[in-house]
Write a structure and sequence with these properties.
single chain, mainly alpha, Hypothetical protein af1432, binds fe (ii) ion
Length: 186
């Protein structure tokens, strides 16, 4: 399966906006993989498919969970948007034979996780800073990501925490764990 075929498939299942975001993430992932000396093609692939499950209907998702024996944590049950990471990782394996590194990168791309390797970190941050993202500070975050992945991730987690506080929403423990882990490592 080449990237063009995957793009055609994604075009058929995602909104235009999400499709463009997927292509943007793919490009950014490739760029970062080059900088950090990782497999560029694999990063392009993972970036492209990271949101493959994002627009499944609730019925489709429920059906997939049941038929694949997927177990959800408490927050995933409460926040359906988190689900697409877990389902996406599973679909990546099933449909494209994605290896464990790609599966983990997709699994961790929404919340982050302290077990992320450099490849997963690249997908995580590429998702947040790809060319279609426009939030305040995104330019600066792009520059940081090209020099220091952990620093960019910390900066992003702080955005996530601020936003969660403002909207009185919960923060996934994997996200706070990751922050703690990076800070302790420094
Ligand atoms: Fe996502
Ligand atoms: Fe995404």
């Amino acid at each position: 399966m080449n990237l063009e075929e995957i793009q055609q498939y994604l075009k058929s299942i995602l909104t235009e906006k999400r499709y463009n975001h997927s292509v943007g993430t793919s490009k950014m992932a490739k760029e970062l993989a080059k900088i950090y000396g990782l497999d560029e093609e694999k990063a392009e692939f993972a970036g492209l498919i990271h949101d493959i499950a994002k627009e499944m209907s609730k019925e489709e998702a429920d059906e997939y969970i049941k038929s694949h024996g997927i177990i959800l944590d408490e927050i995933e049950k409460e926040v359906p948007a988190l689900l697409h990471a877990k389902l996406g990782a599973s679909i990546a394996k099933e449909k494209y034979n994605a290896d464990e590194q790609v599966q983990n990168a997709i699994l961790y791309h929404t919340t982050g996780h302290k077990n992320m390797d450099t490849f997963a970190k690249i997908i995580y941050i590429a998702d947040k800073i790809e060319e279609n993202r426009t939030f305040d500070g995104v330019e600066e975050l792009r520059e940081i990501a090209k020099k220091d992945l952990d620093k960019a991730i910390l900066r992003n987690i702080d955005y996530v925490i601020e936003k969660a506080i403002r909207n009185q929403r919960k923060i996934h423990p994997d996200t706070t764990d990751l922050k703690k882990y990076i800070l302790e490592k420094k």
